[in-house]
Amino acid sequence: MNSYLEDLLLHRDEDSAEKFLERAAADTSWNLVSLIDEMVPGLVFESNLTYGSFHQVKMALFLRRLSRQGYLSRVTELEVLKLLLEEALNRNWLNIRAGNFVRRDRVAEPLDKMQSELSQGNIHNAMYYALQAYESEPEKLSETLLGLGSLHITDTLGHSLSCFQPVMKEVINSRSPEAETALLSYLSYLGRYDLPERLEPGKYQAEIEAAEELKKAASGEGIINLHHMITLYILLDWEEADFHQDDFPVSYGILQDWLSDKDIAEARLSRCRNWQAPDSIPDNYQEFYRRFSYSDPDNSARLVISVVERDLPEALDWLFRLYAQDYNLPKWNPHFYTGLYAALMLQEDNLVDDPVGLKMALDQAVRYYIAGMQ
């Protein structure tokens, strides 16, 4: 049975959505984490994908984590809830549910069977074996699926990995009630690609120097270069995930191959290496919002970096509120949030210990947002 919020989205009921937001503005008892959880079954079965991949669920789960960990104020939560509903109402969703079931036959190596079926495009059979693996070896199932997704990083701009790594972390491995539905969605997504009968993760491992890799990934403008940085974040976050097993190599070698012909942008490197804070730093959101200018990316990027340097948790709240407050549907792109989140979490989660590279990532993400909003 669907929740009220899920039915609202499935039927694209704009009037009910407006009333829902009016009630949310007047009643402070709602919880953003719970509301996003209600949306997850639809988000993982978005259809008629506007960008070819599952950006909405990734964006929602990033916001869910920020809310769960207390980064977002109630004012910001209301703004991002409006954005999520507006985005969802402009997408199409399949009303699909998957659950576990009692199976008669069990196999000794369900992951091998799953991969064999998946390589042949037999999604239903692959799901049958995946559910058995989910019971007996959930961590290895997650890593195997992410490993298979990482094989197509270069021809999907990283989406074959990045769209579902947050789903693995926040939905499947947390044993969410929607875990089986999310699992079916990822198997269906992977079924569009040529996959091996058996993944050999050791072929794609590599030792990386995260600081130098970030400087390279955070170089350049535009969507492809932004995805270099996002994908590096996703790989680093995968390595730190609770489900990651030390004997399963993260696919850094594929990222290295993708970036092999890319140089570090000397202009951005110099700007961030010689970075200087503005004369004054806003001490409240209103002043920050007033000084953030879409016509002056240089000063706006300096402003953002200065606020992050002073108080990262506060900056997280301010930035996600600003993006939501200035939401403009014809110009909005879910990569605005994804790029911002990746750049900020690289620092907040201590995934890279390099102040220059971290500034470069933030500079890249903010400039991408400003360019897209022009």
Concise account of the structure shown:
By secondary structure, this protein is mainly alpha-helical. It folds into three domains: 90 residues; 90 residues, no CATH class; 170 residues, no CATH class. Helix content is 63%, strand content 1%.
Distance between the termini: 42 Å
Assign a percent range to the helix content: 55-70%
What's the number of structural domains? 3
Strand ordering within the main sheet: 1-2
Structural category: mainly alpha
> What is the overall shape?
globular
Low-confidence stretches: none
Q: Would you count the extended β strands for me?
A: 2
SSE order: HHHEHHEHHHHHHHHHHHHHHHH
- Main sheet: strands, sense, barrel: 2 strands, antiparallel
Strand % is: under 5%
Task: Work out the oligomeric state of the chains in this entry.
Answer: single chain
Query: How many helical stretches?
Result: 21
Overall mean pLDDT: 93
Structural Rg: 21 Å
List its salient traits.
374 residues, mainly alpha, 3 domains, two-stranded antiparallel ribbon, 1% strand, globular
